[in-house]
Predict the 3D structure of the following.
Amino acid sequence: MGSNILYIEDNPDNMVLVKRALESRGYKLLQAMTGLEGVAAAQEEDVDLILLDINLPDIDGYEVARRIRSSAKHALAYVPIIAVTANALKGDAERALSAGCDVYMSKPINIRELWARVEAFVPSPHKPT
């Protein structure tokens, strides 16, 4: 099986889009619909990368990133986190980076950009021919 990517996202349409896009490249997508579920999943599963929505129904993505980075699970300090958000106000990217995210991507999701961003951190197990 491919590399494990955790996607923390409360929008089912975005979840389906990203799941199809990444599974087509051989990745395995783990899903969490809330920030707290995402933090728990990151601590329980071995993940190679985290895609993180900022606007979540319980705790926001900034808090999720901070909790993941300060987790007792040492490996989470180094797992790449890509913020994927519709927030496009001045300072949003800086806020995501200062919370512990490595990259900031804006919505709507561009599949080619998503592939490129993910593959920069986790090489694709297989690319379509």
Remarks:
- The longest strand covers residues 4-8.
- The two ends are 18 Å apart (CA to CA).
